[in-house]
Specification:
The complex is a heterodimer of chains A (about 300) and B (about 240). Chain A has 13 helices and 2 strands. With about 300 residues, chain A is an all-alpha fold. Chain A has a domain of about 200 residues: Orthogonal Bundle (ABC transporter involved in vitamin B12 uptake, BtuC), CATH 1.10.3470.10. Chain A has a two-stranded antiparallel sheet. The longest helix of chain A has 27 residues. Chain B has one domain: P-loop containing nucleotide triphosphate hydrolases (Rossmann fold, 3-Layer(aba) Sandwich), CATH 3.40.50.300. In chain B, helix 3 runs parallel beside helix 5. The chains are: A mainly alpha (about 300), B alpha/beta (about 240).
């Protein structure tokens, strides 16, 4: 029998604390912000899989987040499809769009893919604002919840984050993951090593979009509403900031980054400087990146030795 | 011996300048061939055209009897047409062993192929070291090990001795000779002629995108056009 590592034990202990903490008396107020944190952590995990491991920079992951949210909301509200099924279909829709977008743009050299991802949320914002079938400016209200009990919703978000983490770990350790890393390191060298780089990049994008979609769908059902504001800059920037702060190209970095940023957002009531908060976080994140390129994970590793 | 590589009237221009200007080259199974020539002769472009990193303007490339003109580099690599680069391209944040294993996995080979190739170039002891921590000479060896581990049918080496010390060059030429002795067909582009001519049996000289000599190493220096290409006709001593 293999020995249980101290880090595994610490991880399990942390999970138990996370699962139990909001259920304790006087801690119910943490349920919603922590649920949001888990959703944003899932989005950051998805973004990091693409950038941290395949080296593909996306500035528009809010598109995949929002598209799945809209699809899941419509399917569950208008067609009565059970919420979990609608969420998976919504995520598959995001993944499918990612394939359609990725097929032409990932073959281009240079920064075209980045530009395409930058444009996607802007287009989606205009479209959802303009189309009545998508609720127009006000969005879609009355999106059915996954479950009624808020603690169960919280546990569901924790499970979603964990499942995304496990899925990421599985991908990274698979042959696809190794090929993604080779593309990140040097695409030309990867080609010479026989790596089908367009296919690898496409799969990475589709998986990342699927996980982002799950997060977005969960978010829509949590709030009971989804509107064009989902495509605004903040949602697109957050996974980037969270991953860089936590440590891009590491499994746990995005989760740590998400918890730090969301905690500062929600608990310390930085809304007082709401208009500037994105700027403040971006500046702080990149300052940390300059000092610790491996993010908080790098700091942790140094401390632990 | 069967033909492993054939190019027919291969041409490629950049901005009106012909980098490769009608190259007909045939490489047979088991050969160890050097392509030499002054800077800008078109040697690396020829490699790029053969391995799919550039599309030819016209002409054909045949690998193992199959027309592979314009085929994607990764498809050619999977078929066993493997190349290295003049400027080393390590996967810097991976270990030496991980660098080599990627190609093995793609070709459906086990880790023993990686070990064998790393031992052949003398890098096995450094298998757990990050590629970013290697010296230039070690990176050149890593590049060769990655290629050898993929068990190539045809191995194209772009300046494998560039920047190496004499002892490193000795190790690398030994590994190349061994791979060739084990049945790998090798074509290498090289400027270090002394070491190169010791191991090859055929030399192709390129100048201004064309092949101007194709024959035995010992006759290269006796060919007037080759001497002109290198030294502007002022004489040339190879010292082989």
């Amino acid at each position: 029998m293999s020995a249980v590592r101290p880090s595994h034990l610490a991880g399990i202990a942390l999970l138990v604390v996370l699962a139990v903490l909001p259920a304790l008396p006087g801690m119910r107020a943490l349920l919603f912000p922590l649920t949001l944190t888990n959703i944003m952590a899932t989005l950051a995990i998805a973004w990091n899989l693409l950038f941290g491991y395949a080296g593909l920079l996306s500035l528009g992951h809010s598109f995949f987040f929002g598209a799945a949210g809209y699809a899941s909301a419509i399917l569950s509200k208008s067609y009565g499809i059970p919420v979990p099924v609608a969420m998976v279909i919504g995520a598959a829709v995001s993944s499918g769009i990612a394939a359609l977008v990725g097929l032409p743009s990932l073959k281009l050299r240079g920064h075209y893919f980045v530009l395409v991802t930058l444009v996607l949320p802007a287009v989606a914002y205009q479209l959802t604002n303009a189309l009545d079938v998508l609720g127009g400016h006000d969005g879609i209200f009355g999106v059915p919840p996954l479950v009624r009990d808020s603690y169960a919703v919280y546990l569901g978000s924790l499970f979603l984050m964990l499942a995304s983490l496990v899925a990421s770990a599985f991908v990274i350790r698979s042959r696809l993951g190794v090929e993604m890393i080779s593309v990140r390191e040097d695409e030309e060298a990867a080609k010479a090593l026989g790596v089908d780089t367009p296919r690898v990049k496409l799969y990475a994008l589709m998986i990342s979009a699927f996980l982002s979609g799950l997060a977005g769908a969960y978010w829509a059902h949590l709030n009971g509403v989804i509107s064009p504001s989902v495509y605004e800059l903040e949602k697109a920037s957050m996974p980037l900031l969270m991953s860089v702060l936590g440590g891009k190209g590491t499994l746990l970095g995005p989760v740590i980054g998400a918890y730090v940023i969301q905690t500062l957002f929600e608990s310390l009531k930085i809304e007082a400087i709401a208009t500037a908060r994105l700027f403040v976080f971006a500046a702080a994140t990149f300052a940390i990146y300059r000092i610790f390129p491996q993010g908080l994970m790098g700091v942790l590793r140094r401390v632990i030795g | 011996m069967s033909e492993v590589l054939v190019t027919r009237d291969l041409r490629k221009s950049f901005g009106g300048i012909a980098a490769v200007n009608g190259v007909d080259l045939t490489v047979r199974e088991g050969e160890l061939t050097a392509i030499i020539g002054p800077n800008g002769a078109g040697k690396t472009t020829l490699f790029n055209l053969i391995t799919g990193f550039e599309r030819p303007d016209s002409g054909k490339v045949y690998f193992m009897g199959r027309d592979v003109t314009g085929e994607k580099p990764y498809n050619l690599a999977r078929m066993g047409l493997i190349r290295t680069f003049q400027i080393v391209r390590p996967l810097r944040n991976l270990t030496v062993l991980q660098n080599v294993l990627i190609g093995c996995r793609v070709r459906g080979l086990g880790p023993e192929a990686a070990e064998e190739s790393l031992r052949a170039v003398g890098l096995w002891e450094k298998r757990d070291v990050l590629a970013s921590l290697l010296t230039h000479g070690e990176l050149k060896k890593l590049e060769l090990a990655r290629a050898l581990a993929m068990r190539p049918k045809l191995l194209l080496l772009d300046e494998p001795l560039g920047g190496l010390t004499f002892s490193e060059a000795e190790e690398v030429t030994g590994a190349i000779r061994e791979a060739n002795a084990n049945g790998t067909t090798v074509v290498l582009v090289e400027h270090r002629l002394r070491e190169t001519f010791r191991i090859v049996r055929r030399v192709v000289v390129m100048n201004q995108g064309r092949i101007i000599y194709d024959g035995l190493p010992e006759n290269v220096a006796k060919t007037e056009e080759v001497v002109k290409a290198y030294m502007g006709g002022r004489g040339w001593v190879l010292g082989t």
